[in-house]
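Weekly structure sync, notes
Attendees: PL, DS, HV (note-taker this week)

Item 1: Antitoxin
DS walked through the input record. Source organism listed as Algoriphagus aquimarinus. Sequence as pasted into the shared doc:
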Amino acid sequence: MEITTYSKFRENMKSYLDDVVNDQKALYVTRANGEDVVVLSKSDYESMQETYYLMSSPKNAERLLHAIDEANKGLGVKRDLIEL
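Item 1 (cont.): predicted structure, written out as tokens:
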């Protein structure tokens, strides 16, 4: 995660925003007289929101974590999609 000051962010906003979107990395902006902020691309933010939603149900979180563990162990099964 890149870190910059509010002043530098304001001076180079286009460049910083382009980097956030193109590199898919968050930008940490420090402020002297306020809470620091994190700048994310819309797609990264939506991805985080979706993950939060999927993990908010304990049962669903358990299923997902189990599936990830199996996939990491090479126990996944590749299947073809059915065309409608």
